[in-house]
Specification:
70 residues, OB fold (Dihydrolipoamide Acetyltransferase, E2P), 0% helix
Length: 70
């Protein structure tokens, strides 16, 4: 299983995918809000969303797993 990890601490502003969605390498999957900036989190590989480990408005830490892909 592949994972998409958080690049920096921040708040989850918007989740752009749902379980079962296909994801392409380079596709934005989550938008974080950190230091009053919107930071896109992109997938580093192709896959299908198996699980989302956060919800909108959650605070997430650097290197935390946000999404699992199959």
């Amino acid at each position: 299983m592949k994972t998409i990890k958080c690049p920096m601490a921040g708040n989850v502003w918007k989740i752009l995918v749902k379980v079962g969605d296909p994801v392409a390498k380079g596709q934005d999957v989550i938008i974080l809000e950190s230091m009053k900036m919107e930071v896109p989190v992109t997938s580093e590989s192709d896959g299908t969303v198996a699980e989302i480990h956060c919800k909108e408005e959650d605070f997430v830490d650097d290197n935390q797993t946000l999404v699992s892909l199959t």
